[in-house]
Amino acid sequence: MSLLIKGELRDDWFDKTTDSGEYIRQDSQFRHWITADGRSAPDGAKAYPAEAGRYHLYVSYACPWANRTLIFRTLKKLETLISVSVVHPDMGVEGWKFADFRGATRDHVHDYEFMHQVYTLAQADYTGIVTVPVLFDKKTNTIVNNESSEIIRMFNSAFNHLTGDGTDFYPKHLRKEINDINAFVYDNVNNGVYRCGFARTQAIYEAGFDQLFAGLERLEQRLSQQRYLAGNTLTEADWRLFVTLVRFDAVYYSHFKCNLQRIIDYPNLANYVRELYQYPGIRATIDFDHIKRHYYWSHDAINPTRIVPKGPALDFDAPHDRERFS
């Protein structure tokens, strides 16, 4: 990714002056909300009304955080309401770009070459990293939100009156449990793989490694007793975990040195990730050419040769056993 300082591009997005060997993820800065009626946004955020054709989603197939939003766009039948642009998997000094690659697209809204141009259009003096996903309002020409966890909540409910789809992946009676699980999964797994991969000291790496695999073991045990993370109800917590698990054996195991075990070595996690991959519409949101190309090519400090491995052989279409909990 790239870094903007008061609207000026920098390539040192990983700030060496503020960390001591541990990767610290920066918070997203655009935190407005789309609601059904354009009112009642949480925490004093600006509210935007749900309208068909008004909003555009910028994503990378490689990015797990962006993958969450593509999944919810599919689950909630928003494909005809919210348009999408897909960046090239290579991320160089200017960050995410729009260029020719199978599955990538041009910037359908502005025809820009780089994502940082979308950010400076929304805020000319923007300071921060340039990330995806980005939910963009074509009517006011600005970014609504670039925090994936909030975008999927909007997709979960704000457009229901337009789609007629009332499926709820964040039901009220499970919200505390979902929030607790999300926090555990984020700290130990979603961000845990990055703490391993971007660690700059042996001690920091080993601490992150131990925490990651302790977390995976706890999830393996949880899924030995129930079908999904919140019992037998499929919720947003499952999709938030899925995007890391589905990438794990292909990139995190080797590229990020998360090599104690593969996901395929955990019977319950392996069957669980196959079930979610086979859920209607989900496989179309997963592109391993983009995933592998991005990680192995873009992180040249980790993989200076930029050689992208041909393996491993993965079969997410193999049968799973999760129906046993039905």
The gyration radius over C-alpha positions equals 19 Å
Percent helix: 25-40%
Number of domains: 2
What would CATH call the class of the largest domain? Alpha Beta
**Relative strand content:** 5-15%
Short summary:
With 326 residues, this protein is of the alpha/beta class. Helix content is 36%, strand content 10%.
Descriptive report:
This protein is of the alpha/beta class. It folds into two domains: 2-163, 3-Layer(aba) Sandwich (Glutaredoxin); 172-279, Glutathione S-transferase Yfyf (Class Pi), Chain A, domain 2 (Up-down Bundle). 36% of the residues lie in helices and 10% in strands. It contains ten helices and nine strands. The chain has helices at residues 64-75, 115-122, 148-157, 160-163, 175-190, 192-197, 202-222, 236-252, 267-277, 288-298, and strands at residues 2-5, 8-10, 33-35, 47-49, 55-59, 83-86, 128-130, 134-137, 142-145. The strands form three sheets. Strands 6-5-8-9 form a four-stranded mixed sheet, sandwiched between helices. Strands 2-1-7 form a three-stranded antiparallel sheet. Helix 1 runs parallel beside helix 3 (148-157), helix 5 packs antiparallel against helix 7 and helix 5 runs parallel beside helix 8. It starts with a strand and ends in a 28-residue tail after the last helix.
Task: Throw out a few tags for this protein.
326 residues, alpha/beta, three-stranded antiparallel sheet, Glutaredoxin, Glutathione S-transferase Yfyf (Class Pi), Chain A, domain 2, globular
